[in-house]
């Protein structure tokens, strides 16, 4: 029982740490800044952004994957939310681009809060729909979090196996190349010995 409580406390602490993923930065006028993040397959991603307004300045927001597919786009963005579900493990890019015809404009402050996986789920809505008690909601949250952790470990194990297979394949190829190189060197050395022997015999330096 004590171990179970420790596990619940650890998972709760991990959940709290993962939930605080807020980024704030300044975007100079007529510039572009992008944020990249790797996300697993079939993961819900939600985000909320707020951009400080400046006169005669427009800021566009675009979210794309590594293939260039647009997942979310907003022109003249000031404040809003977005959500999408990943179709495959990929690198996603969130780009803010500032445009202004004026020369000198103060930098815009951008606040971005992105969540994915367990963090992005609205457990209050789930509790209302399924009529769950607060303790049941917390247990559901911990169950989803533990499942997410297990999936992450499974993915890491899969990547480790792929890297090990690649390493073994590379070592095998290097071994074969080394053997081929040694055979070539031995063959060249043997040819040089016979060539020099015939040469010296032709010059009557040896019998």
Automatic annotation (TrEMBL):
Keyword Cytoplasm belongs to the record: no
InterPro entries: Emp24-like (IPR015720), GOLD_dom (IPR009038)
Keywords on record: Endoplasmic reticulum, Membrane, Signal, Transmembrane, Transmembrane helix
Annotated signal sequence range: 1-22
Primary localization class, coarse: endoplasmic reticulum
Membrane topology: Single-pass type I membrane protein
Species: Danio rerio
Family recorded in the similarity comment: Belongs to the EMP24/GP25L family.
Source organism phylogeny: Eukaryota, Metazoa, Chordata, Craniata, Vertebrata
Cited PANTHER family: TRANSMEMBRANE EMP24 DOMAIN-CONTAINING PROTEIN
GO CC terms: endoplasmic reticulum membrane
Record's subcellular location: Endoplasmic reticulum membrane; Membrane
Entry protein name: Transmembrane emp24 domain-containing protein 10 isoform 2 precursor
